[in-house]
Amino acid sequence: MKIAMINGSPKLGQSNSGIMLKIFGTFINAEHEMTSYNINKKPLNEKHYIELCHTDVLIFAFPLYIDAIPSHLFRMMIKLEEYLKKEAKDNIYVYAIINNGFYEGHQNKIALQIMENWCDRAGINFGMAIGQGAGEMMEFVKNVPISHGPLKNLGKAMESLADNIHKKSSGESILFNPNFPKFAWKFTGTHAVWQANAKKNGLKRKDILKKIISH
Amino acid sequence: MKIILHDLNQQEFSGLYPNNDTDTVIISDNGTIHNCIGCFGCWIKTPGVCVLKDGYSNMGELLSKCNELVIISRCIYGSYSPFIRNVLDRCIPYILPYFVSINGETHHKNRYENTIVLSVYFYGEDITKREQETAKALVKANGINFYFSESKAYFHKDLQTIKEVVK
User: Fold this and answer.
1) d(CA A37, CA A52)
2) In what order do the strands lie in the sheet with A33-38?
3) CATH annotation of A2-180
4) Spans of chain B, pLDDT less than 50
5) Does pLDDT of A137 surpass 90?
6) Predicted local confidence at residue A215, as pLDDT
7) Crossing angle, helix A109-122 and helix B129-145, to 10 degrees?
8) A107 touches chain B (CB under 8 A)
9) What part of A 134-163 touches B (C-beta under 8 Å)?
């Protein structure tokens, strides 16, 4: 079976979607042919779109942007819909791995619905999605063995996703929080992410809070 | 100040709004917009301003002066069209990186205190019921994340019927 893994993060360097795809790759049986696609630096070309039309399974991994799908990935999906309508092979299944910067995985629900609506328009099958909250945490826990500690729920969700992919079937989507206390996540985000990174740029908390007032 | 954000060509837009109001800012696609690259520079490097220099870096400040936001967008899969999505992705300088809980959900803190009423006019000949439900949920969620005082979504088959309600 041909499986395409599409990293829909717009980040130029390492991304949480990339980390999640790398982890998920270990759940896929070795006999399947996996190809990775990145759209962060330049858009796909015609050859790529045609390849995707002749793939059995499309796996999209992306971050939630303003409750929806990042605009560069959204443009790609619209173009892919045109190709799929013309030359998709039969019975393509789509799966999604969504992460959002808030704590609650259920906030990925609207992006999941947009993916389902896209599949309806493109005439392909929606398999299922998994959606995790606290996506920015992935960088800090990427070396934790999957299915353990803060990645326990992610591991369970990925097992279910892989099971459906291997059977080319649809399953119930799973939106979940990380196995990490909310207060600890919030504290880490505030101090180890936002303030620590602002400090590297010579900024203090009051600078982060700045209001832009020009006339 | 009122902002009209739209994905129409010049002729279509002029058909809807033949007269320019001096207190209205029009945001349209001039072909130069870059996509957000998730660098968070607008929070931790140049707070309140996007680091991408393409003419759309001041969305945070513009929204801070706004009390009415009108979006006119083709409805695609229950979402805004790519240009509108692109502009909204570039609006995060309007809010802060810090988190708060609203009705038990995490959201970002607001940077400004102004209140904005959002009206979204979606158009499309064959928007499905399911796409409408998705789009309504999306507009509502955006309203929570951007602290809009009201967020309403309307659906139209063509631009003519939008003209009748926005004039």
Assistant:
1) 10
2) A33-38, A2-7, A57-63, A93-99, A125-132, A174-176
3) 3.40.50.360
4) none
5) no
6) 65
7) 150
8) yes
9) none
Q: What number of other Cβ atoms are within 10 A of residue B101's Cβ?
A: 11
What whole-number distance in Å separates Cα of residue A130 and Cα of residue A1? 21
Q: Which of A11, A103, A120 sits opposite B38 (nearest CB)?
A: A11
Residue A215 touches partner B, C-beta closer than 8 Å: no
Q: How far is A65 from chain B (nearest CA, A)?
A: 6
CA distance A27 to chain B (A): 28
Write down the domain spans for chain B.
2-166
Distance from chain centroid for Cα A109? 13
Contact status of A191 with chain B (Cβ, < 8 Å): no
Q: Which two tokens stand for residue A114?
A: 């947009």
ipTM of the complex: 0.96
H or E element at residue A174: strand A174-176
Cross-chain residue pair A194–B138, CB shorter than 8 Å: no
- The pTM assigned to this predicted structure is 0.96
Q: For chain A, which residues make up each domain, given as ranges?
A: 2-180
Q: Which CATH number is B2-166 given?
A: 3.40.50.360
Amino acid at B134: T
Question: Rounded distance, CA A175 to CA A132, Å?
Answer: 6
Question: Could you say which of B37, B43, B134 has the minimum Cβ distance to residue A194?
Answer: B43
Q: How many other C-beta atoms lie within 10 A of the C-beta of residue A176?
A: 18
Using CB atoms, which residue from B49, B96, B107 is nearest to A209? B96
